[in-house]
Specification:
The longest helix is centred in the N-terminal third of the chain and has 20 residues. This protein has a domain of 34 residues. The protein has two helices and no strands. 0% of the residues are buried. By secondary structure, it is mainly α.
Length: 65
């Protein structure tokens, strides 16, 4: 009985892994980024995507709920 449970669990894990495999691929790889827009900028003048080209950009989204 334990072997059957183990095989069923292993089968479920394989099926779930196959389902989520496509979700883990970067959807925008090789495509240009969308234009960046923000209503307010802190510590900077408004930036454009052209001025950020070739640089690493970190976007930090957060909210206080």
């Amino acid at each position: 009985m334990k072997v059957v449970r183990f095989l069923v669990l292993l089968g479920l894990l394989v099926v779930l892994g196959m389902q989520f495999r496509s979700c883990l691929r970067p959807a925008m790889t090789g495509k240009p980024a969308a234009e960046l827009f923000a209503s307010r900028w802190w510590n900077s003048e408004p930036l454009t995507m052209q001025s950020l080209r070739g640089k690493v950009v970190l976007l930090d989204f957060w909210a206080v709920w």
